[in-house]
């Protein structure tokens, strides 16, 4: 028997997953309401087009609906698992369409469809503040490091492809990826201070 | 430089999903026996997750939620709603139906009639074709990852003539791939080939997998 909406809203993501695995639509709806915005935002960031971002997000959530029972909490949070599905689907969609990520910077605040702050829930507001801080950390990376990371994660290019595109040795690309990720990781470990 | 050090060099690309598929598979085999490298992956993973969290926020259109809930709720869905979907997600529209068990269907008989199911295999890939209306949904399992830029292209054969099926597709990380075939009339064989980005107008090689449509 499907769980009631009010009860599902009180459950943690990890508790919703077994219900989704048992095909509970209310649990699925709650999970979408929590993470659908982040999923769509990531898809849009990668594919750069609203219709395709919508399709990618839909595919990713349907995939989660089908495979919910396979979620393994040892591999990370439901949200990060969900976003990794979205990222992979978005890159696949780009490849199938012969396109690539049209934007390679985080400096597109002007394009945002932002809601007024008053309409944000407390949780959304915290997430948005964290996202602002994360953008600040990533924005502080040297250009050569942020470029290889963005080409890899948002563009879906392999490290060998990036080396060819930038005309630098493969070892240089590997080193820049390592340095950039270590800096982000270090800031996270410091609590984004 | 030791083998271990060489693997450590590749871990950032692996965490970012930027390692070539074959190399990633090799690294995963190494990870199975190397706690030090597993620790390195675990250390970097939150930095990659932060990239996803740092994108500028956008509001998804409300219709996306409606579509998803239509898809997962048990009520019968309207065929007309599915027809409005873009080709990219045409296959997704019936995944809930297919989810009752990819390999659990009985092979149908009696031609390409609605509801009939046909199967095929080749190169380790399993294919299942489920007819619906005048078309069909083709689902593949155990597809190896494609080289960068590679796509899957489906073809139908009618009276000995091979035609491309509009809409290229790619396998997901689990090796599953789905596409839709709009018109199954007169089709006696469905094939899938690996093609370069953008696809081709004629198969450039031997089919990866074929599904015969028997009468």
Structural commentary:
The complex is a heterodimer of chains A (193) and B (215). With 193 residues, chain A is mainly alpha-helical. Chain A folds into two domains: 1-102, Rna Polymerase Sigma Factor, Chain: A (Orthogonal Bundle); 122-193, Arc Repressor Mutant, subunit A (Orthogonal Bundle). Helix content of chain A is 68%, strand content 0%. Chain B contains six helices and eight strands, in the order ααααααββββββββ. In chain B, strand 1 and strand 2 (125-132) form a beta hairpin. Chain B folds into two domains: 3-53, Arc Repressor Mutant, subunit A; 87-212, Immunoglobulin-like (Sandwich). At the A-B interface, helix 3, helix 4, helix 5, helix 6 and helix 7 of A face helix 1, helix 3 and helix 4 of B.
CATH fold description of the largest domain in chain B: Immunoglobulin-like
Describe the global form of chain A.
Answer: globular
CATH superfamily assignment of the largest domain in chain A? Answer: RNA polymerase sigma factor, region 2, helix turn helix motif
Mean pLDDT of chain A: 83
- CATH topological fold name of the largest domain in chain A: Rna Polymerase Sigma Factor, Chain: A
How many whole angstroms does the radius of gyration of chain A measure?
Answer: 18 Å
Q: Just give the CATH class of the largest domain in chain A.
A: Mainly Alpha
Alpha-carbon Rg of chain B, integer: 21 Å
How many strands of chain A? 0
Measured by residues with Cβ under 8 Å of the partner chain's Cβ, the largest interface is:
A-B, 82 and 60 residues
Helix content of chain A: 55-70%
């Amino acid at each position: 028997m499907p769980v009631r909406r009010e009860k599902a809203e009180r459950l943690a993501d990890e508790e919703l997953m077994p219900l989704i695995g048992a095909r509970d639509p209310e649990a699925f709806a709650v999970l979408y309401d929590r993470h659908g915005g982040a999923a769509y935002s990531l898809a849009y960031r990668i594919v750069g087009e609203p219709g395709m971002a919508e399709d990618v997000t839909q595919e990713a959530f349907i995939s989660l609906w089908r495979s919910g029972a396979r979620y393994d909490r040892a591999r990370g949070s439901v949200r990060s698992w969900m976003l990794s599905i979205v990222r992979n689907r978005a890159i696949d969609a780009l490849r199938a369409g012969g396109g690539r990520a049209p934007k390679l910077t985080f400096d597109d605040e002007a394009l945002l469809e932002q809601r007024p702050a008053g309409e944000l829930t407390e949780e959304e507001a915290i997430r948005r503040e964290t996202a602002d801080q994360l953008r600040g950390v990533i924005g502080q990376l040297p250009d050569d490091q942020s470029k290889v990371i963005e080409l890899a994660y948002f563009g879906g290019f392999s490290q060998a492809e990036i080396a060819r595109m930038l005309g630098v040795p493969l070892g240089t690309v590997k080193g820049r990826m390592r340095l950039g990720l270590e800096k982000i990781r270090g800031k996270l470990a410091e609590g984004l201070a | 430089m030791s083998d271990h050090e060489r693997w450590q060099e590749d871990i950032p690309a692996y965490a970012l999903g930027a390692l070539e598929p074959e190399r990633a598979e090799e690294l995963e085999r190494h990870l199975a026996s190397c706690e030090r490298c597993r620790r390195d992956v675990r250390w970097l993973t939150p930095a990659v997750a932060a990239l996803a969290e740092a994108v500028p926020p956008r509001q998804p259109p409300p219709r996306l939620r409606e579509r998803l809930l239509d898809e997962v709720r048990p009520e019968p869905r309207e065929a007309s709603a599915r027809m409005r979907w873009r080709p990219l997600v045409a296959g997704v529209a019936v995944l809930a139906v297919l989810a009752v068990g990819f390999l659990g269907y009985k092979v149908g008989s009696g031609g390409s009639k609605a509801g009939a199911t046909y199967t095929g295999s080749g190169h380790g890939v399993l294919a299942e074709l489920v007819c619906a209306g005048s078309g069909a949904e083709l689902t593949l399992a155990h597809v190896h990852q494609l080289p960068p830029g590679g796509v899957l292209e489906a073809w139908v054969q009618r009276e000995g003539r091979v035609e491309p099926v509009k809409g290229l597709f790619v396998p997901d990380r689990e090796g599953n791939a789905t596409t839709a075939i709009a018109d199954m009339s007169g089709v006696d064989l469905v094939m899938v080939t690996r093609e370069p980005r953008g696809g081709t107008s004629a198969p450039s090689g031997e089919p990866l997998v074929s599904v015969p449509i028997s009468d």
